[in-house]
Amino acid sequence: MLFQQGDHYKDNEFKKINKLTEYRKSLTPEDLKLAIDYAEIMAEHSSIIGILRVTEAYLYGLGREQDPVKAYAWSLLSDYAKQKIIESDNNLAWYYYQLSPVWEYNKEIQTRLEQILTPVQKQALKMS
């Protein structure tokens, strides 16, 4: 399965992340849904990469029904996780050099979503 193999990065130096959109043609819809189900379980247990994959799934409608509001909510959760990692001096199970591409890609997604969503939608999520 895609996410169990850990092929999240394009290189061994962890500088570029593989995007979910790059896998959509190589997986059947059923396998993609299963991969996102797995990623959501990972995300619910504070996996940074799981949160990113669920964000992508809702943004692009891959393995989930497309929902920019849910994608934005997951993206904000990634920001929260980033802040907690920084506050804890990254004493979690991640190597610091693997985090930067995740944060950069999340920011790219978040910027795109902020252009799509209305101010009311964005504010409602930030208040909840």
Automatic annotation (TrEMBL):
InterPro entries: TPR-like_helical_dom_sf
Gene3D superfamilies: Tetratricopeptide repeat domain
Protein name: Sel1 repeat family protein
Organism of this sequence: Gilliamella apicola
Organismal lineage: Bacteria, Pseudomonadati, Pseudomonadota, Gammaproteobacteria, Orbales
